[in-house]
Amino acid sequence: MPSPISPLIIALDYASLDAALCMADRLDPRRCRVKVGKELFTRSGPDILEALHGRGFEVFLDLKFHDIPNTVASAVQAAAEQGVWMVNVHASGGRRMMTAARERLETHNLDTRLIAVTVLTSMERSDLAETGLDIEPMEQVERLAALALASGMDGVVCSARESARIREICGDSFLKVTPGIRPANGEAGDQRRIMTPADAMAAGSTHLVVGRPVTQADDPMAALVAIEQELATRPQGQ
Ligand SMILES: O=c1ccn([C@@H]2O[C@H](COP(=O)(O)O)[C@@H](O)[C@H]2O)c(=O)[nH]1
């Protein structure tokens, strides 16, 4: 299947396979990738992956594995063997967990992108403090991104607010997959560290994850086209 040149990944956060495919059938796999998350996968199982692959989509399976190294490595292997383009783990699972996942993919010659979640985009400083980390999200994101790089990850999930800093620390080719994307004046909802699509790209994000701004819009296709136009018309060099 041809890789889309677009950085857009549409989050298919739906409660059924039929609802997700209804949306997918309006999308063009040459213009975006799609993301399958916990709700949809728990309800539909691997059938959704087969259906999306059959339609030509590259799929990011966003299950954020976080467990002991052997369990995570086996889950990552299972995802990759189902042909997903990208899968993720939590960087806070630590170096041995991430390394085990990387080694498992290499042992089985699986080329699925493997990335690690740093700090969820729904979290702000006060949320971190309640978990015992009384620091700015940026500090923890920097720490976990460096650990993810050292543990063989292809990139991280972070907010676009951290993309520029991660590019400095981890380089251009290290993927910065950024949810929390909101059009100007868009509703943040439960997200806390947000950015507009154009600003996120200018900051160095390599991929933009967009869910509700498209899927919950009155006219999802118009919302998607508006984002595509915002990206197409952003100033050169940004
Ligand atoms: O830190 C993270 C990690 C994952 N997500 C996922 O991205 C989408 C965002 O959806 P919106 O509707 O655009 O807010 C969603 O599937 C999350 O599970 C994230 O938001 N933040």
Automatic annotation (TrEMBL):
Which positions bind substrate? 13, 35, 62-71, 121, 182, 191, 211-212
InterPro entries, per the entry: Aldolase_TIM (IPR013785), OMPdecase (IPR014732), OMPdecase_AS (IPR018089), OMPdecase_bac (IPR047596), OMPdeCOase_dom (IPR001754), RibuloseP-bd_barrel (IPR011060)
GO cellular component, alphabetical, reads:
cytosol
Q: Which residues form the Orotidine 5'-phosphate decarboxylase domain?
A: 7-227
The UniProt keywords, alphabetically, are: Decarboxylase, Lyase, Pyrimidine biosynthesis
Q: Name the chemical reaction catalysed here.
A: orotidine 5'-phosphate + H(+) = UMP + CO2
Biochemical pathway: Pyrimidine metabolism; UMP biosynthesis via de novo pathway; UMP from orotate: step 2/2
Molecular-function GO terms, alphabetical: orotidine-5'-phosphate decarboxylase activity
Q: Which domain of life, per UniProt?
A: Bacteria
As for family, the record states:
Belongs to the OMP decarboxylase family. Type 1 subfamily.
Q: What name does the UniProt record give this protein?
A: Orotidine 5'-phosphate decarboxylase
Q: Which organism is it from?
A: Modicisalibacter xianhensis
